[in-house]
Amino acid sequence: MIDLAKNIAAAPRRTKASVIRELLKVTNKPGIISFAGGLPDPELFPYDFIADTVKRIMDKKGRVALQYGPTAGLIEFQEEFAKFLHRHEGVEVKPSNILVTTASQQALDIVGRLFIDASDPVIVEKPSYMGGLQVFKSYGADFIGIGMDDEGILTDELEERLQWLRKQEEHYKFLYIVPDFQNPSGVTLSEQRRKKIITLSDKYDVVVIEDSPYRQVRFEGAAPKMLYRLDKETRRTDNIISLFTMSKTFAPGLRMGVIVAHEDIIKKMEILKQSLDLCSSSLNQLIAAEFLRTGYFEKHIERVKTVYKTKKDAMVSALGRYMPEGVTWTKPEGGLFLWVKLPESMSADDMFAEAIKENVAYVIGSAFHCDGSGKNTMRLNFSYATPEEIDEGVKRLAATVKKALVAK
To answer: What are the φ/ψ torsions at residue 64 (nearest 5 degrees)?
Structure first.
C-alpha cells in the first residue's frame, strides 16, 4: 500500500475526525444517557406526511423526482423557500439568490472552497460550531477567535481585531457566526450587535456567514431580525451569506440545506457544487417543497417547539437541583443545546472518562474552541433524551462533577 502520509493532498491531511463522531462511538453502549449528539427527537419526525407525500410525488412527478436536477436546485423548491423567507423572516429573495445543498455541511464546504486560501485568517466565535471549524481548517484557514457573552460575539473585540488585521495587511476573508441559539452555547446574538456587525462588514469589507440551523426552533422570547434582512434594510452591503438546513425543523435524513446570497455569489457557488455532486436529491427537494407549500411546516414546528421547551426546562431544572456551587449554564430560548461552565480549575476533557463510567456523556467544550481553550466547559443536548432520562443523566453528571471537585 502507498505511504498515505506522504501521498495524500494537503486538505485531507489537515482534516481531523469530528470529536462528536468519535465520542458517539463511545456513547452508543447500552445504558448510556447521551447529551453528546445534536440529534432531533425521532418521535417528532413526520413519518405519515413523508410517506403520503412521496406517493403523491411518484404519481404526479415521478420522472422529475428520480432524475438529475439543476445544480442550483429545483425551481419548485426554490420558489417555496423564497415564499417561506418572505412569510417568516420578511426577507425578499428570488430563486437566483438560492442554492440548494446536500445539507448545511456541504454549504460550509462550498463557503470554504470559495473563499479560503491556505493561511487566510478566518474570524470565528469562541466557542464556535466544530463542523465549521473542521471544514475551514481543511482548506488551511488560520482562525482568529472572538469571545462571547450572553448577547453573542463581542463586537468591540471584533472591531479591534479587524483593525489589527487591516494594519497588518492580512487577507482576511470572512466572519463565521451562528447567531440564533448558537451551537454550542445556546446564546442568541442581540439585534444591536447584529447591526454593528453589518456596519463592520461594510467598513472592513468582510463577508459575514450567517449560519442559521436552529432559528425556527424558538420557543421563548422575541426573535431579532436576521442579519440578511437587517443588511437589506440598512446598508445593503450584499456581504451577508445565510445558510439554512431542514435537519432540525423537518428530518436530517433528507439532507436538505440552502444558501441565500447575492446572485453573483450564488453563481460562483453553483459552479463549485457541480464538481461536488452535480445536484442534490430531486425527490428530497420535492418533499421539502410540499412541506413548505402545504403549511405543514407551521403545524410541525409548533409541536417541535413545545416538546423541546419541555426538555430544555427539564434540563435547566435538573442542573439547578443537582449541580454543585460554582457550576453555571446558559438558559437558551430555543435550539437544541445549552452550555455548562465548570470552575476554572476543572477540566471537562479529563472528566469525560469518569462521566462514561457513570453512564452519561457530553461533548467537551475545548472541541468548539479554535485555540483549544475552554477546557472547563461542555455542551449538553436536550432534544434527544426524554425528560426522565434528562433528569437521571444530569444527576449522574453532577455526581461526576462532585467527585472531580473532591479530587482537586
So the answer is: -75, -45
Q: Cβ of 271: how many Cβ atoms within 10 Å?
A: 12
Same domain for 248 and 331, yes or no, is no
* Distance separating the N- and C-terminal Cα atoms of the chain: 48
Q: How far is CA 219 from the centre of its chain?
A: 18
Query: Would you say the pTM of this structure is higher than 0.70?
Result: yes
- What count of other Cβ atoms lies within 10 Å of the Cβ of residue 43? 9
Task: Kindly report the CATH number assigned to the domain that includes residue 391.
Answer: 3.90.1150.10
Are 286 and 77 a contacting pair, CB within 8 Å? yes
φ, ψ for residue 157, nearest 5 deg = -65, -40
Mean pLDDT over each residue of the chain, to the nearest integer: 94
Encode pLDDT of 222-260 as tens digits: 999 999 999 999 989 999 999 999 999 999 999 999 999
Q: Does residue 172 carry a pLDDT above 80?
A: yes
| Beta-strand relationship, 256-260 and 98-102 | antiparallel
Domain boundary residue, one of 295, 320, 336: 295
Query: What span, in angstroms and rounded, lies between the C-alpha atoms of 187 and 181?
Result: 5
Closest C-alpha among 212, 246, 197, 216 to residue 333: 216
**In the structure grid, which three cell numbers stand for residue 227, read together?**
442579519
110: cell is 462550498
Cell of 353: 472518562
Which one, of 344, 345, 342, lies nearest residue 398 by Cα?
342
57 with 32, same domain: the answer is no
- Residue-wise pLDDT for 3-49, tens only, equals 666 666 666 666 566 566 666 666 667 889 999 989 999 999 999 99
Q: Which residue has the cell 445543498?
A: 101
Which residues partner with 241 through β-bridges?
Answer: 209
